[in-house]
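Collaborator request, handled under Task 6.
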Amino acid sequence: MQERITAVTGNIVALACDAIVNAANTSLLGGGGVDGAIHRFGGSEILDDCRKIIAKQGGCKTGEAVITTAGKLPAKFVIHTVGPVWNAEKQAEMAELLANCYKNSLQLAVENECKIVHFPCISTGVYKYPKHLAAEVAVKTVQAFLAENDTIEKVVFVCFDYTNFRYYMNFLKG
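Structure tokens returned to the collaborator:
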């Protein structure tokens, strides 16, 4: 199982894969951080697809996920998921919402025959989810999903900074 999950440091928009997961906001119209980079580097096709989703269902709720083209990115798809904004008083609810981001994204990847999926560190930027707690939720959720599904060959946690990378590697080592 461990060979199917890894972590690297780098820029998620530069790495080839089948699906890049975007830490989106509920509007799906782009923002800062990973979301802004994906929209900037992917081009207008991603935003056009997001607008079609908005017209059909509105935005995307926290914990949910939607899929679009990847535009000019080195991927087939972008899976947009909305992580929770950290609230220490609701830690259990936060963990469940964050886990849903990973589960729903992976389910969309399976439905779209994606073999290699790259995740950012969802909610650890402006949404202030503590990095070590987010890494634990992410690793455990992905491990549980892959234990039940062999469609996805590789999940890569693409960490923008070394602190996140260290947390993911610690949890991956068990």
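The cover message to the collaborator said: "Residues 40 and 164 are 23 Å apart (CA to CA). The beta strands are 5-9, 19-24, 65-69, 77-82, 116-119, 154-159. Please let us know whether this matches your experimental observations."
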